[in-house]
Design brief:
Layout: E1 4-6, E2 9-18, E3 25-30, E4 39-44, E5 47-59, E6 62-69, E7 77-78, E8 81-84, H1 91-99, E9 105-107, E10 117-120, E11 123-124, H2 126-132, E12 138-139, E13 144-146, E14 153-154, E15 159-165, E16 170-175, E17 185-188, E18 193-204, E19 207-215
Parallel strand pairs: 9-13, 14-17
Antiparallel strand pairs: 1-2, 1-4, 2-3, 2-18, 3-6, 4-5, 5-6, 7-11, 8-10, 12-13, 15-16, 16-19, 17-18, 18-19
Length: about 220
Amino acid sequence: MTYAALEGIPIVRGSLVVPAWGIWHADVWLDRAASLSGSVTLQLADLTAKATVIRGVSTLGQAGYRIVGGAGGWRQAIGSWQYANAAGLTLSTVLQHVAAPIGETVNVPADVAIGTAYVRQAGRASLVLQQLITGGWYMGYDGITYAAPRTPGVVAGTWSLISVAQPSTAYVVATESVAEWLPGASFAGPSVSGVVNRVRHVITSGTLRTEVMADG
C-alpha cells in the first residue's frame, strides 16, 4: 500500500501542517506529471483527508501542489451583509449562510445566540469565523469546518521518538498512526510526554516523519 499519495498518485516529498486552530494545508510533489484540480483526497499512512487544490506546478516530469482542507472557500472574498432577528440570532444561522455559497460545510457542536444583529464585513470569508467563534475553530480531515475548539484526544498507537529539537518540547517521531497526532491530543512515552499543539508530517527520502510542537 502506498503510504503517501494524492488522488492515488505517490508523493515523493512534501509536508502536511496541522495548526491548533484554523485550516490545515499541505505542499506535495508527486512522482509523475499529473493534472489535478478541484477536490482531491490526501492519504498519509492511516490518515485520509479531503482537500482542494489551490495551485500547482509541473517541472522535470513531476507535479507539485498546495492543497488546503475543505473546499478552499474560506479563502474567498465575500461581500458585506446585515443579519437581524429580534428573537435572537444564532451562530449557526450566520455561519451556514456564509458557508453554503463558498462550498464549505460547517458543524456547530453547540449553537449559541450572538445577539439580535450582526454586520458581516466585506473581506475574506474566514474573518467571520475569527470574529464569531471564541476559543478557536478548525478544519477536520473530513473536510468539515468545526465551529468549536478541538476535543482533547489520546495518541494510543505505537510510536518511537527520533529526536528532540529546540525548544525542548519539539519532537520528531516515527509512527504509522499519524491520524491520531492532532492538536489537543496527549501522548506519553518512556522519555517524553505532553499535549500536541501543532503537527507537521514530513515525507522525504521514502520516509514519513511527524514533527510535534507540544505543551509540556
